[in-house]
Amino acid sequence: MARPAKPRVVVSKCLGFAPCRYDGSMIADGRVRRMKGRVEFLPVCPEMEIGLGCPRESVRVVLVRGRPHLIQPSTGRDVTAAMRRFAETFLDGLGRVDGFILKSRSPSCGVRDVKVYGGADAEEPLRLGAGLFAAAVLRRFPDAAVEDDERLRDPRVRKRFLKRLRGSP
Fold it and tell me: Nearest-CA neighbor of 46 among 83, 17, 19, 4?
């Protein structure tokens, strides 16, 4: 009998795969490291993929006419269109994917805890929401197991995520 294929999991590249965070750092995530032999990881850094470089000026989610945009406050650069194009192209090309582990609080990858501002220079966020890449993931893969690195610290969340990866209800 053939062994079942390993679950395919898209993971934020900064979670142990490359030093690609805005400040040039990498996060040594033990939970991700322990999964390496059991899943096929597909690491990605959307901000690097759209040419922001490393290290880079930070970006933030800003509402512009009521819609979330990805803005670099120090330069005023709006990289929303580039991020949306990248997300669409990348997600279109994935084929079978079982789950996503994305970087919490990231303006591109945060699943639910990204600060959303009313302006590029606003001091206080209006609310929390999803980053631009993560929002595209949630729309495109509503049935996939999707979590962020912070929530996976909770044993119950982690157990539920792993069950979903293996196809259990």
Answer: 83
Q: How far apart are CA 39 and CA 72, in angstroms?
A: 34
pTM for this model (two decimals) = 0.93
Helical H segments across the chain, by residue range: 30-35, 46-49, 80-92, 132-140, 155-165
**pLDDT at residue number 4:** 62
CB count in 10 Å sphere of residue 96: 8
Calculate what percentage of the chain has a pLDDT beyond 70: 96
Residue 85: helix, strand or coil by DSSP? helix
| The two three-digit tokens of residue 72, written as one number | 């670099």
User: Average pLDDT of 60-79?
Assistant: 96
| Partners of 10 in beta bridges | 42, 100
**Can the peptide bond before residue 55 be classed as cis, meaning omega within 30 degrees of 0?**
yes
Tell the residue number behind the tokens 């209800």, with chain if given: 169
End-to-end CA distance of the chain: 24
pLDDT at 37: 86
